[in-house]
C-alpha cells in the first residue's frame, strides 16, 4: 500500500507559476515510479508527467516546456507549473503504479497503469 498526499495548489493569473508537491508514505518502494495527472470538469483524466526510479521523465505534449517534474527526496516528488494558461485549470493528482519500475502503461501516462492515487489539489488559472 502506498499513500499519496498532494499539496501546493491554488489560484493564479495566466502566466503565473505554482509548485505542487506529492508526499508518499507506506510501502514507498512501490512508489519509485510516480506520475502526475489532471482532470478538468467534464473531461477525462489526462496524464501530465511521469518520473522513473532513475530520474527519467516524460511529459504530455500540452505541458512540455512549461511543467517540470522533479524529486524532492526518495519519497516526495514535485511538479513545477510555469507559464500557466486558463486551460491548465484542473484538479491535479499524484499517482503511483504500485510497481518498483514504471510499466508500459504508467510510462505512457495511461491512468489504468496506476493503482494508487492521492486526493488531488486544485489549480485554477484566471485570464
Task: Give a short summary of the structure.
With 127 residues, the chain is mainly β.
Overall pLDDT level: 92
Secondary-structure-derived class? mainly beta
Overall number of strands: 11
The ordered H/E elements are EEEEEEEEEHEE
Number of helical regions? 1
Computed CA radius of gyration, to the nearest angstrom: 13 Å
Q: Calculate the terminal CA-CA distance, rounded to whole Å.
A: 40 Å
Helix percent reads under 10%
Share of β-strand residues: over 45%
Which residue ranges are poorly predicted, with pLDDT under 50 across at least 5 consecutive positions?
A: none
The major pleated sheet works out as: 7 strands, mixed
> How would you sum up the global shape?
globular
Features:
mainly beta, 47% strand, 127 residues, 4-stranded antiparallel sheet
Q: Could you explain how this protein is built, in words?
A:
This protein is mainly beta and 127 residues long. It is 3% helix and 47% strand. It contains one helix and eleven strands, in the order βββββββββαββ. Strands 2, 4, 5, 6, 9, 10 and 11 form a seven-stranded mixed β-sheet that branches. Strand 7 (67-71) and strand 8 form a beta hairpin. The longest helix has 4 residues, at 104-107. The radius of gyration is 13 Å and the shape is globular.
Amino acid at each position: 500500500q502506498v499513500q499519496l498526499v498532494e499539496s501546493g495548489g491554488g489560484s493564479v493569473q495566466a502566466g503565473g507559476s505554482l509548485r505542487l508537491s506529492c508526499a508518499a508514505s507506506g510501502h514507498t518502494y512501490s512508489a519509485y515510479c510516480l506520475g502526475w495527472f489532471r482532470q478538468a470538469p467534464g473531461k477525462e483524466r489526462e496524464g501530465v508527467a511521469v518520473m522513473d526510479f532513475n530520474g527519467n521523465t516524460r511529459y504530455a505534449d500540452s505541458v512540455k516546456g512549461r511543467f517540470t517534474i522533479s524529486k524532492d527526496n526518495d519519497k516526495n516528488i514535485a511538479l513545477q507549473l510555469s507559464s500557466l494558461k486558463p486551460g491548465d485549470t484542473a484538479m491535479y493528482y499524484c499517482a503511483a503504479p504500485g510497481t518498483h519500475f514504471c510499466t508500459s502503461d504508467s510510462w505512457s501516462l495511461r491512468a489504468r497503469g496506476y493503482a494508487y492515487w492521492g486526493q488531488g489539489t486544485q489549480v485554477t488559472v484566471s485570464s
